[in-house]
Amino acid sequence: MADVPPDRRAGWRRWLVVAAYLALIFFVSAQSTLPALPGSPSEKLLHATAYAPMGALVVWALVRGDRRRVTFRTVVLATLFCTMYGWADELHQLFVPGRHYDLRDLLADATGAFLGAAASWAWSIIARGNADA
Question: Could you tell me which residues come within 8 angstroms of residue 94 by beta carbon, excluding any fewer than 6 positions away?
Fold first, then answer.
């Protein structure tokens, strides 16, 4: 079965999903205390884990759902977008009691965003290869 081209008019819906994810990150970072997670994962791992899906979602929105259009440039743009959001979120935390600004958190955010975006790129390369078979 051939791939059905994505609905280009639905682009705003993809950005709405991205905005909802950004709002979720904002809500969590606005909490003065967070519940302890089982196994006590490192804070940096949690940051990267939160930003990886964001990177993938931003790639998805940038290419309008067309996985054939994902390029390294898309990965860079998505990573920059997510990193800028992470920076804004770190600034936001300056005003949340019990939270603080930490450049290492921002680095973990950027790393997670890059990994999520790069995974989308890798998946697109695999998918293009399978489409040719």
Answer: 100, 101
**71 — pLDDT class (breaks 50, 70, 90):** very high
Tell whether the torsion through CA atoms of 114, 123, 24 and 73 is positive or negative.
Answer: positive
Residue 1 has what pLDDT? 43
pTM, two decimal places: 0.86
Q: For residue 42, how many other CB atoms are within 10 A of its CB?
A: 9
Phi-psi region of 127 (alpha: psi -120 to 50; beta: other; left: phi over 0): alpha
CA distances from 31 to 18, 72, 97, 121, 123 (A): 21, 35, 8, 33, 34
Q: Which residues contact 18 (CB under 8 A, 6 or more apart)?
A: 54, 57, 58, 61
Q: Write the DSSP symbol of residue 66.
A: -
